[in-house]
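Sequence, please.
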């Protein structure tokens, strides 16, 4: 439930967003490791985010029009050990995944917190529902938590390390009194840092640092991967992704001070089913008009090709991918690896 403790005068509702979303920079100096991103439907243009480990039990509502924080929620009693993901459920609540494990299986249990999104944007202290989580095949590191917008079922995607990453499904209804066992339902060969369901529940995107995959989602669960390249902007440490409320864009976020959130427009089969023309003719005509739309998304500045593209996928920029971007990407990988190593050593002392 949500407490009635308000710490500031309610802010004015965010202005409704029309047309294509713009990139924006997170201006709040407290947010230095934005590790999850969720687009609000109740407050258009607002995105919820949080820091990674070691920054306290806080959720931040950021207005994309200004990049400023318009509300901060304090989760009373939450340890927030290694928070990696945030996602809206069909009940309008925020589900927060304290699911990271830098020791790659060092913790027997992880947690999910659930808090209703406030009707008014204001600083507040809230008491979250707490769900204890275990995996049916043992502890592991994960950074991606998704809640299906129709069924409300919660899914977690583990990171690819010594074995392939995997998608885990939680119980149909989470329990606050018993341990919730998540069952492995599919292997996914991707180093996943975040994921999100489309608003209509027919697409699932999973991203890594430099690549992302889009999957169809059916009544039976995970479907086939969409065979169109999904571009990802080059970012210092790409850790988050969310669909815009209309389902037409992905918003990609990164860790770092003053990090930028970058939109990528979806096209063709990458779009959720509810956005496909009834006869498929309109999109097909657009794709074939000039024979050049092979990327399936508008490329943001610095976007690169998918190094794990499946057979049949095309990479419109693979031939001209700037050497500078490649060097930058490799440098980022080394920085991330060093950071994780130093963090693990400091935690083990």
């Amino acid at each position: 439930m949500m407490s009635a403790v308000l710490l500031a005068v309610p802010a004015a509702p965010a202005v409704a967003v029309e047309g294509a979303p713009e990139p924006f920079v997170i201006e709040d100096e407290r947010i230095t490791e934005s590790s999850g991103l969720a687009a609000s439907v109740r407050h258009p243009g607002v995105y919820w985010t949080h820091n990674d480990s070691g920054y306290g039990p806080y959720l931040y509502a950021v207005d994309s029009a200004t990049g400023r924080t318009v509300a901060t929620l304090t989760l009373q009693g939450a340890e927030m050990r290694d928070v990696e993901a945030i996602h809206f459920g069909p009940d309008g609540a925020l589900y927060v995944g304290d699911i990271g494990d830098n020791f790659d299986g060092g913790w027997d249990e992880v947690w999910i917190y659930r808090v209703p999104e406030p009707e008014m944007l204001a600083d507040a202290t809230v008491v979250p529902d707490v769900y204890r989580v275990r995996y049916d095949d043992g502890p592991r590191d994960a950074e991606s938590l998704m809640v299906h917008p129709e069924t409300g079922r919660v899914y977690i995607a583990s990171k690819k390390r010594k074995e392939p990453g995997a998608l885990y499904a939680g119980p149909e209804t989470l329990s606050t009194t018993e341990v919730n066992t998540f069952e492995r339902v599919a292997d996914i060969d991707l180093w996943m840092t975040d994921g999100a369901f489309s608003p209509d529940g027919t697409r699932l995107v999973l991203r890594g640092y430099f690549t992302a995959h889009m999957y169809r989602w059916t009544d039976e669960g995970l479907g086939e991967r969409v065979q169109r390249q999904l571009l990802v902007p080059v970012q210092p440490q790409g850790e988050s992704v969310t669909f815009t409320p209309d389902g037409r864009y992905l918003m990609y976020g990164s860790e770092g001070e003053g990090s930028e959130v970058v939109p990528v427009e979806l096209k063709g089969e990458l779009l959720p089913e509810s956005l496909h023309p009834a006869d498929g003719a309109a999109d097909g005509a657009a794709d074939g008009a000039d024979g050049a739309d092979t990327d399936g998304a508008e490329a943001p500045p610095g976007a690169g090709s998918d190094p794990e593209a499946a057979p049949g996928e095309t990479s419109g920029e693979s031939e001209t991918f700037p050497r500078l971007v490649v060097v930058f990407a490799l440098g980022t990988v080394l920085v991330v690896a060093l950071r994780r190593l130093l963090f693990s050593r400091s935690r083990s002392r």
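The chain has a mean pLDDT of 82.
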